[in-house]
Amino acid sequence: MFEKMANWQHLRMPWRSAKWLAIDIETNGLDAKGDAMLALAWVAIQPPRIMLNEAEYRVVNTNLELTQSAVVHQLSLSDIAAGLPLEEVLQDFIEAAEGAIIVAHNAQFDAAVLQQALKQTNMSWHPDGVYCTLRAERRRLERQSKTLKPDSLTLAACRERYGFDAFSGHHALNDAIACAELFLAQAFRYSSGHTPNARSLLKEGR
Length: 206
Prior knowledge:
This protein is of the alpha/beta class. Helix content is 38%, strand content 15%. The chain is built from 8 helices and 6 strands, in the order E-E-E-E-H-H-H-E-H-E-H-H-H-H.
């Protein structure tokens, strides 16, 4: 995860008053520190709403050779060629993420990719917090003494337990929105009967 976070003072506010930003990153492989960022998507969450009108999707222009991962993520050579420089993509993201708590499924991977990209471009950014929907779901299931199967913590599997319809994954924007929906379902279940602050909820997904 990130070496340090931004100011935590405002995390004392009720979680529904905090700013949350669901993200998804597509890469050219599974090595967070060695493979290229191909696409980055984000969507703001203002509980109970997901701000679809503010959703953004950016493809990165990279000269690296594309692998099968790019095909899986529905990206072609022409998509990559028409993409934006990594610095511009990161700058747009940093502006959108100002004052926000980041939400991601398998956030450790996304955080590592972001760290590597920031290092590569000599840019700096520290989130106000990082909430992982995968870790939150694992924690919830472990409290119930549930047996975790190898595929029980995928984004699709986690969503299914909350009654969401199946979705078409492996597209950054679709995945970011799907993650935002899962986050809200987790958050409202966790906060049932009480009103936790943002910091308390954040700990569920750390």
